[in-house]
Amino acid sequence: MARNEAIQTFGNLTLLMQSLNGSISNGPWNRKREQILLHSSLPINQQLHRSTEWDVVDIEARGLALFERAKTIWSFD
Asked: pLDDT for 1-43, tens place per residue?
């Protein structure tokens, strides 16, 4: 998967306050990660501390992890 395709997938999405999103949206990953970890206590964002890079592999892995977590929360038994 190419990076431009990966950034449009579930693994690259997160929840941020509008002001934070606007201030970091096009910045480098190291600044984004620092600001997200500093200003967000959401578990889906706190997991980003492990990602020193943000490439296709990281985005795909996060997407899969989020999907697996969602399946445990919203099971269809």
From this structure: 788 888 899 999 999 999 999 999 889 999 999 999 999 988 8
| C-beta of residue 61 within 8 angstroms of C-beta of residue 11 | yes
CA-CA distance, 77 to 25, in Å (whole number)? 38
Nearest to 39 by CA among 55, 19, 58: 19
Across 16-45, b (16+ Cβ under 10 Å) vs e yields beeeeeeebeeeeeeebbebbeeebeeeeb
Question: pLDDT by residue (tens digit) across 61-70?
Answer: 999 999 999 9
pTM: 0.83
Q: In what helix (H) or strand (E) does residue 65 lie, and over which residues does it extend?
A: helix 56-73
Run of H or E including 51: none
